[in-house]
Amino acid sequence: MPELPEVETTVNGLQPIQSLTIKAFSIFNPNLRWPVDPEISLLLENEIALQIYRRAKYIILKFQSFHLVIHLGMTGKFTFSSPAESRKKHDHIEISFFNFNQVVRYNDPRRFGSVHLVRGKLEEFFLIKNLGVEPLSDEFSGDYLFQKARNRQQAIKAFIMNQSIVVGVGNIYASEALFMTGIPPQKKSKQVSKKLMSNLTDNIKAVLNHAIEKGGSSINDFFNTGGQAGYFQIEHQVYGREGLPCKRCGSFIKKIVIAQRSSFFCRQCQR
Fold it and tell me: Given 54, 55, 57, 77, which residue is catalytic?
């Protein structure tokens, strides 16, 4: 599933359509995770894409009176194509623009993605209103995380993946940041010291920024708007490396399950 770096990569790739006016918003298959509202086609016609940005793992397109909220689900991706190019299987949505010689197509084989038109306040929308702080913001700090973790029995890996605490720290990057900090993923959140929490927030920021620079991780299905895979996965220290030697100490990487997610770590480096 695309995580924050992959979504940020997609947002960066969509910047060429910012400030353009929509000519047509075509829905070929509305049956995504939630049915796509057919009114979107009419309401967005002749609307200008004023801003394109990310909130958590959501892509936000801001218009004069609306916001379009998009989640890529497990296999969703946007690509630029020539209007004359035949649609690919699983191309569900196409957006064309005035004075722009390409169209943007949304492709999603498993159809777990979603597209929502928000008419009211974005911060009150059901997918947005309960989200925590952004991990790359100044608000996300060691003090913040330490205070939120007080009296929590939850494993630290599940805690930093809690979207009401901090958004966008998915399974890959949680595993990598915990390894960088030397914290075992199963350790109780309340047992992590303030100093380690500070180190952990710094490492979360570092690993996310580095992954964005590398275009994200393409484990299975992620490709950017140009159709290229990300390549941060070749730098994974622990994620997906069960049974392989730790790049730091040579011990074998272990895998356990925490909150129904595979968690990879080194017993020697993470104590």
Answer: 57
- Tell me what the mean pLDDT of segment 101-112 comes to: 96
Task: Extract the tokens encoding 24.
Answer: 């047509």
Q: How many distinct structural domains can be found in the chain?
A: 2
Per-residue model confidence (pLDDT) at position 216: 59
Mean residue pLDDT across the chain:
92
CA dist 213 and 81 (Å) reads: 24
In terms of residue numbers, what domain contains 255?
Answer: 142-265
| Domain final residue pick, 89, 124, 159 | 124
The domain spanning residue 255 has which CATH number? 1.10.8.50
Distance CA 2, CA 12 (A): 14
Q: In this structure, are 109 and 160 located in the same domain?
A: no
pLDDT confidence bin for 226, thresholds 50/70/90: low
Q: Any catalytic annotation for residue 261?
A: yes
Shared domain check, 168 and 72? no
The residue from 33, 152, 187, 261 that is catalytic is 261
* 65 and 154 belong to one structural domain: no
Among this protein's residues, is 2 annotated catalytic? yes
Measured at the alpha carbon of residue 172, what is the angle toward residues 168 and 176, in degrees to the nearest 5? 105
Domain co-membership, 81 together with 169? no
Q: Is 110 a catalytic residue?
A: no
Decide if 77 contacts 14 (C-beta within 8 A): no
Is 57 a catalytic site residue? yes
Q: State whether the Cα torsion 125-131-136-138 is positive or negative.
A: positive
The residue whose two tokens read 């597209």 is 115
Strand order in the sheet with 91-97: 22-27, 91-97, 103-107, 77-81
Catalytic residue among 3, 6, 8, 176: 3
Structure tokens belonging to residue 203: 């490492």
For residues 252 and 216, membership in a common domain is answered with: yes
Question: Out of 2, 5, 135, 184, which one is annotated catalytic?
Answer: 2
